[in-house]
């Protein structure tokens, strides 16, 4: 028995109602994006015989095949009567792209309510309205009405995205695509008339393609249902959640301290903590944490941190942040220190941080990690690409040492032009999360630590 | 003795959303929370007030019970650390005048005379029934620190012991409980019992919307709720 969301991600036949060649309408870009889908696509629009090389049907009921998923991109006032046709056609899954419902005021709320009643009566499961719908890298299904020329799509990977906001889903996908990071699936559920945050987590918990989830929300559909689903998800896979809209104060007069202090955010914070989610505090932090949990295969099981650098200042900054995040940085144990002393020139600093100085070479990173990392739970590795003794090959050395030790490593390579960018991509390709500042590299490691703590149920 | 259900029933019948302090404390006590010993007396009977002080043993605290007063301290309806019978008599006059001056509409229904409790770490412990998340707990530093430090965090019920410890661990209050810079470690088990008692109150009485205990004083052994406020739905 498949989860209800399975049919949204794996239809064999998709109808697009409101397909058009008008470039200013969503029905155009969705149709273009469906060209990447490896199933059958049936555009519906009474005004066209053909569209972008497809035969176009005058009505959904005129489509000769059974339809697994309908994408409805019609103006809001036309959606209600279309629901009747979906029912007539025997369709049980619909993405309602149209906006102009509950998010837009009283009239929209009434329209949405009527659609909720109808779809419930007919047994039609709904994503939306006011939603981009789904993106699935496995079969190319893409209902997002954002053209690929404007917003590139990530390749296949293990991270899935759940977002209440369409805009955030899109920006997050593009940010990941920019770094060459892959995703498994994405869903934007918008006004959540039916499918909501908790349903998405339930589905991804059992989806073998999904290794972790990055989630954006402004509010939950049903708090207790969400907590149950998030808890179940996070007990299996890392969950990173960013909640925005933290500081709205309840308008109602409050009679006690407790109510004043709660706002609404206090309870969200509690839900995330009890669920075992990694709470991201802003957009960048969500991306950083998502990258870490998606890329790094080795759990961060403790707080003993090693820092390896070729520039002293950056290591100091990393150490400061490490302390804030609850890491400790014990000195290199004597056997490892003696080993390093025998290999490295005397002017390398064999404390923790290990400072390879501006003379450190590619293989020195490998040696430092090989000898010291076994004594620690994780490492931050800083590479200043300006030093002429290091090249992109250093990234290969770091990745190899990380995989040999099977301990989590995050890297800091300062943002720069061509040369440093290539080094960053080389690390990402090898499964090593890399960040443009030492603080962000440490925070990403802390996210890994927190994801692991929750999964193990220990504190 | 009045049962908790009866207390809630009476308040709702009288159209009161906020329980009187002695009623709220009765509910807290029914769930196993330690509250200071108290006596409730008729405000027209000054002799009974003094007798109550003597029976409890000085020092005592005097509080006015009134539907019209929500924040007792602001209304002059609390006098702490009264050490003699004469002091208690004088306090009654002072309080009547103060309440009349600050809240002219207030009718004092009764006086609450309570045993004064020793100093201790002051926490805020409570909870609310949220529309989205259902019954929840609040926890943090209490007393004068509530507004200044905003230490409070929340937990969604039901909670396991580990989840409660996680919640405590998020706060500065948690740090003080462990003992800080030479101060002794305090009774964390007693704090957990109070949290569980609040959870029980929410589970047993669906009419309860908010519980606010501030301060709960924590000692090396035991913890007591010095002020309890309960709001009904």
Compressed to H and E, one letter per element, the order of chain B equals HHEHEEHEEEHEHHHEEE
Overall shape of chain B: globular
The most extensive contact between chains is: A-B, 23 and 35 residues
Task: Provide the CATH superfamily of the largest domain in chain A.
Answer: Succinyl-CoA synthetase domains
The CATH topology of the largest domain in chain A is given as Rossmann fold
**Helical amount among residues of chain B, as a percent range?**
25-40%
Helix content of chain A: 40-55%
Task: Look at the structure and name the CATH superfamily of the largest domain in chain B.
Answer: ATP-grasp fold, A domain
**Largest sheet strand order of chain A:** 8-10-9-11-12-13
- SS-based class of chain A: alpha/beta
CATH architecture of the largest domain in chain B: 2-Layer Sandwich
Output mean pLDDT of chain B: 93
Indicate how many domains the architecture of chain B comprises: 2
Report on the structure:
Chain A is an alpha/beta fold. Chain A has two domains: 6-294, 3-Layer(aba) Sandwich (Rossmann fold), CATH 3.40.50.261; 297-456, Rossmann fold. Chain A is built from 16 helices and 19 strands. Chain A has helices spanning 6-9, 26-33, 76-89, 106-122, 166-178, 197-206, 223-234, 257-262, 265-275, 283-295, 312-324, 334-343, 362-372, 393-405, 418-429, 438-456; strands spanning 13-17, 40-44, 50-51, 54-55, 69-72, 93-96, 125-127, 133-136, 156-163, 183-188, 212-217, 239-243, 278-280, 305-309, 349-350, 354-355, 378-383, 409-413, 434-435. In chain A, the strands form four sheets. In chain A, strands 8-10-9-11-12-13 form a six-stranded mixed sheet, with helices on both faces. Chain A has a six-stranded mixed sheet with strand order 15-16-14-17-18-19, with helices on both faces. In chain A, helix 12 (334-343) runs antiparallel to helix 13 (362-372) and helix 14 (393-405) packs parallel to helix 15. The two termini of chain A are 36 Å apart. Chain B is an alpha+beta fold and 233 residues long. Chain B has two domains: 4-115, Dna Ligase, domain 1 (2-Layer Sandwich), CATH 3.30.1490.20; 121-232, ATP-grasp fold, B domain (D-amino Acid Aminotransferase, Chain A, domain 1), CATH 3.30.470. In chain B, 37% of the residues lie in helices and 27% in strands. In chain B, strands 5, 6, 7, 8, 9 and 10 form a six-stranded antiparallel sheet that branches. In chain B, strands 1-4-2-3 form a four-stranded antiparallel sheet, with helices on one face. In chain B, helix 3 (46-56) packs across helix 4 (85-102). The mean pLDDT of chain B is 93. The interface between A and B is medium-sized, with 23 and 35 residues.
């Amino acid at each position: 028995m498949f989860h209800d969301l399975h049919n949204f991600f794996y239809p064999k036949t998709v109808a697009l109602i409101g397909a058009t060649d008008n470039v200013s309408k969503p029905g155009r870009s969705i149709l273009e994006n469906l060209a990447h889908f490896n199933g059958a696509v049936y555009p519906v629009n009474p005004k066209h015989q053909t569209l972008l090389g497809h035969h176009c049907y005058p009505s959904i009921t005129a489509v000769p095949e059974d339809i697994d998923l309908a994408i409805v991109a019609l103006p809001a006032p036309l959606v209600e009567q279309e629901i009747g046709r979906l029912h007539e056609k025997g369709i049980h899954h619909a993405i309602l792209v149209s906006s102009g419902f509950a998010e837009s005021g009283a009239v929209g709320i009434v329209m949405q309510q009527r659609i909720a009643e109808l779809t419930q009566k007919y047994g039609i499961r709904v994503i939306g309205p006011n939603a981009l719908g789904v993106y699935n890298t496995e079969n190319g299904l893409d209902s997002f009405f954002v053209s690929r020329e404007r917003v590139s799509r990530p390749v296949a990977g293990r991270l899935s995205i759940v977002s209440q906001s369409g805009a955030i889903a899109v920006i997050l996908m593009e940010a990941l695509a920019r770094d060459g990071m892959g995703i498994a699936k994405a869903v934007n559920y918008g006004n959540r008339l039916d499918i909501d945050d908790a349903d998405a987590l339930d589905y991804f918990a059992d989806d073998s393609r999904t290794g972790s989830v990055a989630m954006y929300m402004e509010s939950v559909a049903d708090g207790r249902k969400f907590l149950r689903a998030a808890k179940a998800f996070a007990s299996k896979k890392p969950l990173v959640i960013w909640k925005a809209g933290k500081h709205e104060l309840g308008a109602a007069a409050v009679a006690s301290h407790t109510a004043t202090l709660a706002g609404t955010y206090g309870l969200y914070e509690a839900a995330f903590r009890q669920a075992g989610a990694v709470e991201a505090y802003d957009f960048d932090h969500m991306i950083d944490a998502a990258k870490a949990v998606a890329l790094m295969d080795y759990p961060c099981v403790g707080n003993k941190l090693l820092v390896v650098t070729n520039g002293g200042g950056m290591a100091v900054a990393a150490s400061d942040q490490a302390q804030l995040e609850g890491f400790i940085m014990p000195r290199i144990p004597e056997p490892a220190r003696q080993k390093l002393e025998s290999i490295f020139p005397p002017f390398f600093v064999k404390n923790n941080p290990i400072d390879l100085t501006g003379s450190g070479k590619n293989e020195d990173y490998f040696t430092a990690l090989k000898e010291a990392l076994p004594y620690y739970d994780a490492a931050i590795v800083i590479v200043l690409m300006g030093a002429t003794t290091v090249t992109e090959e250093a990234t290969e050395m770091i990745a190899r040492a990380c995989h040999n030790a099977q301990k989590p490593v995050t890297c800091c390579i300062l943002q720069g032009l061509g040369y440093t960018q290539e080094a960053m991509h080389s690390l990402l390709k090898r499964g090593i999360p890399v960040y443009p500042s030492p603080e962000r590299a440490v925070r990403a490691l802390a996210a890994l630590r927190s994801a692991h703590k929750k999964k193990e149920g220990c504190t | 003795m009045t049962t908790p259900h009866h207390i809630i029933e009476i308040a709702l019948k009288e159209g009161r959303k906020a329980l009187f302090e002695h009623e709220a404390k009765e509910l807290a006590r029914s769930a196993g929370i330690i509250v200071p010993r108290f006596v409730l007396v008729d405000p027209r009977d000054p002799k009974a007030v003094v007798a109550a002080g003597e029976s409890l043993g000085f020092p005592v605290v005097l509080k006015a019970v009134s539907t019209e007063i929500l924040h007792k301290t602001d209304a002059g309806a609390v006098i702490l650390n009264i050490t003699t019978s004469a002091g208690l008599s004088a306090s009654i006059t002072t309080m009547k005048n103060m309440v009349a001056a600050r809240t002219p509409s207030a009718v004092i229904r009764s006086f609450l005379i309570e045993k004064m409790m020793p100093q201790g770490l002051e926490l805020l412990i409570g909870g609310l029934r949220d529309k989205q998340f259902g019954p929840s707990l609040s926890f943090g530093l209490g007393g004068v620190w509530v507004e200044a430090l905003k230490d409070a965090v929340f937990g969604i019920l039901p909670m396991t012991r580990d989840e409660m410890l996680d919640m405590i661990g998020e706060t500065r209050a948690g740090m003080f409980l462990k003992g800080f810079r030479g101060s002794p470690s305090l009774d964390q088990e007693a704090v957990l019992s109070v949290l569980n008692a609040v959870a029980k109150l929410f589970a047993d009485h669906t009419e309860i919307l908010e519980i606010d205990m501030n301060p709960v004083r924590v000692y090396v052994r035991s913890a007591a709720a010095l002020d309890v406020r309960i709001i009904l739905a």
